């Protein structure tokens, strides 16, 4: 509780006490409580009974909610769910971070509490923003200055880039690596092997390098990891490291990246740590389901870590025991931001960002492929005048003819993925899956990698066993497996020793597995956003991909939003799917809130119309 709140409450309590006293003095003579008239006693008892009843009801509701969430499909339980069962998660914060969390973090955005550079009116076009001691001195290079405005506009249009900047600053996109100021990082791999920045990198790098908060929304597989990794590591490398007492064994991270699943945290860590090493920085990955002692040892070995990539539950554990402090953080990233901000993770994120310096003093970046309305307001409360960079034809919604959108975002699937929807009888799904796999792995395609998504953990187990019995090389990844089994399955699939991976939505977001040729949805996910993420495991880094979805009458509540996605990506819409209706329902879940996207049904596909 903040000091302010505590004060307010004690004042309120005092007032109640004063009122009670007044009533007492008005009605009865002074005296001890047991001399109170029976009417007052009865009134008190009534109040107490009412309170007890309320407490009991709250307890019961809490219990029911907990039981219900244990029955929920896998998607809502990923992240650190296994960890939650085995490791207590004290809510307590370390002393060091307690002070920090009293910052403005959880307050609603207030334009008057922002610092000079980011007050919504001052363009930050010359960089030099100061945040937590770090200077962000991005200056547009003369090479980029020399490019004609027409060429820049052509690029923005072609790549369907829209930038919405509330402070009105204008940075040109870095269309080539040579448009960026030279740096050690850029001269090395992987940048040296990429031919050009991807659109999300081109448009967001200048802002993040200049010290602006950024929300980056771009299709799956479009290079968002590097979009936040490069400015993060560049800014860390050019800022002095704060010093701490010699005997202090706390690991003070200067950047924190939070990911919704362990596998994604590990993958992001692998990418960032190799970049970080190029400039003498270190990164540690903290995730549930693995030994805390080992992770603690890693922190000690590196004498802390400049960058921590983590899943929320494990990070909270380390924070509460004081092994990690985020009080030096100058760069905070929420990867798969909409997932991190929905009801399942909201409290964890508040606690984690509340342990960092206040938003005025750090940079906050959020990247995602889907950006539902339900989390947008919440996101901006953690940031200072974020620049919103969106890629895709959805970006011009409500914007002007120059491609400058108004910040609203439509849900869109990766356009390089061929999407097919088959409406089937629910009882025939697994037989159809088998036929599809055999068809897809015929002849020379026998080693093609295929990702099969189920909704429930038990369903994934059953499907895997069925496929195994039919002689298919298959592994699985879901929350009922130990972390080492999950990791082994993923590695076997990446290496190609297993060609079919059956997964729940723990594998839906962010995983970058090269050469996944086909994604098959055996059961439709909980949300249309998850559908977009699932199919996004194919068609990555400019490649083509294919997704087949088995749709049954049980999924009919998703038909409208699926039709919209198919239309938006110029994909065929089967007649049988249209029969389920085209209304998009807005749904709010008891525990997870309104995670549905508001889709404008009056909108037609950009390139194709269906009659
Ligand atoms: N500039 C670039 N040129 C070519 N390839 C790139 C470039 N930047 C990143 N990549 C590659 O693109 C692939 C996909 O990138 P990444 O995993 O960051 O996608 P993403 O946008 O985060 O996807 P998702 O939304 O699924 O999380 C990676 O293999 C990465 O190495």
From TrEMBL:
Q: Where is this region: Disordered?
A: 1-132
**Which residues does the UniProt record annotate as the domain Helicase ATP-binding?**
205-389
Keyword Mitochondrion belongs to the record: no
* Protein name per Swiss-Prot or TrEMBL: RNA helicase
Entry GO MF terms? ATP binding; hydrolase activity; nucleic acid binding; RNA helicase activity
- Specify residue ranges for compositional bias: Basic residues: 43-66, 92-101
First-listed, main subcellular location of the protein, grouped into a coarse class: nucleus
Q: Which SUPFAM superfamilies match?
A: P-loop containing nucleoside triphosphate hydrolases (SSF52540)
Q: Which residues form the signal peptide?
A: none
Q: Which family does it belong to?
A: Belongs to the DEAD box helicase family. DDX5/DBP2 subfamily.
Positions with biased composition (Acidic residues): 70-85
**What EC designation does it have?**
3.6.4.13
- List the CDD domains hit by this protein, alphabetically: DEADc, SF2_C_DEAD
At the top of the EC hierarchy, this enzyme's class is hydrolase
The cross-references to Pfam families, in alphabetical order and at most eight, read: DEAD, Helicase_C
- List, alphabetically, the PANTHER family matched: ATP-DEPENDENT RNA HELICASE DBP3
Sorted alphabetically, the keyword list is: ATP-binding, Helicase, Hydrolase, Nucleotide-binding, Nucleus, Ribosome biogenesis, rRNA processing
- Where is it localised? Nucleus, Nucleolus
* Reaction equation(s) it catalyzes: ATP + H2O = ADP + phosphate + H(+)
Taxonomic classification, please? Answer: Eukaryota, Fungi, Dikarya, Ascomycota, Pezizomycotina
Q: Cite the InterPro entries for this sequence.
A: DEAD/DEAH_box_helicase_dom (IPR011545), DEAD/DEAH_RhlB (IPR044742), Helicase_ATP-bd (IPR014001), Helicase_C-like (IPR001650), P-loop_NTPase (IPR027417), RNA-helicase_DEAD-box_CS (IPR000629)
